[in-house]
Amino acid sequence: MENLALIESFSEFKDDKQIDRVTLMAILEEVFRNALKKKYGSDDNFDIIVNPDKGDLEIWRNRVVVADGEVEDPNEEISLSAARKIEPDFEIGEDVSEEVKLIDLGRRSILALRQNLISKIHEHDNTIIYKQFKDLEGEIYTAEVHHIRHRAVILLDDEGNEIILPKEKQIPSDFFRKGDNVRGIIESVDLKGNKPTIIMSRANPVFLEKLFEQEIPEVFDGLITVKKVVRIPGEKAKVAVDSYDDRIDPVGACVGMKGSRIHGIVRELGNENIDVINYTNNLNLYITRALSPAKVTSIKIDEEKKRAEVILRPEEVSKAIGRGGHNIRLAGQLTGYEIDVLREGAEEDVELSEFSDEIEGWIIEEFHKIGLDTAKSVLEHDINDLVKRTDLEEETIRDVINILKEEFEE
């Protein structure tokens, strides 16, 4: 049969892509029907017989015999004399089936056919990959570093599928070399121009949740439930866990003897500090646990405003806030409450927001970021410490301190 190169290409794709026979037949027929439409204006009167196993294909054109000189549509009608050249005993009104050779379509059409075939099979392949990875969204996946770019790491899995790990979805301490195996979750899968774009993340809280499932048997078996995960990638995370079996200590089971069970997870996340706490419906107790390792003296909750006012001894305040304000920020995210920290005996303290007439809002926000919401909480810190922990100039901080001191002068 003509154009064996086309059929051989077909067979190569069949073996390489392992597309099922029915799908391949449908793709090949669609490609040929498009070529027939371009050449003859319609493909309605053509039969295409595909045999992918043998690597062969037949095209038959069906036309009606009409009297000589009465052919109106040469694609659907054939003159009596032309029909009798095919078979001498044809009569007017009979159907004639004539095989169309690939060469009859013309050299350009044959080249276009091959390109279209390759394109359609790639399109099908991409659709399969898209569906496969769409089902894996939110699951842990491992792939190998293939190429390192400034804004992303390009990974390849065992099947050669490309997975992108953007810079902002990496843990800040991540460092990769070509050939390294990398674990993360498949965060999103999109089709862009018929090509699947697969995004991996190691910074997403779901990655930590899935690591708990993978590394802690009781979580995998459903004996312990991960209720919520919040994290600042590479710095600190809080995980609330619960168990419906009173005989199981969920925190102890997750952490293990001397941290043995959680150690592998911490190492995977670049030594991220992970606090595991017992989940409870008792809001006071939940907020208290969320502020661990700080010990809370008392709590006042405003459920309407979703705010909690927490009283602590002075030596516990820095623990509650944590380095860079990480602890209090994560406790707020975990519980869904904005947490204000007050020192014992400092009820006369004043919220920083009360100074908005004298201190610009963006400056107040810088203090909020490190957990300092009141005048006294700022005044109790050393100026050099505040310069290091905020993005504020020393002069700006001195101006703020002078304004706050005036509030408490007799």
Automatic annotation (TrEMBL):
Gene symbol of the encoding locus: nusA
Organism: Aequorivita aquimaris
Location of the protein in the cell: Cytoplasm
Occurrences of domain Transcription factor NusA first KH (ranges): 202-279
One GO cellular component term: cytosol
Name listed for the protein in its UniProt record: Transcription termination/antitermination protein NusA
Gene3D superfamilies: 3.30.300.20, Nucleic acid-binding proteins (2.40.50.140), NusA, N-terminal domain (3.30.1480.10)
Domain Transcription factor NusA N-terminal residues, every copy: 6-125
BP GO annotations: DNA-templated transcription termination; transcription antitermination
Lineage summary: Bacteria, Pseudomonadati, Bacteroidota, Flavobacteriia, Flavobacteriales
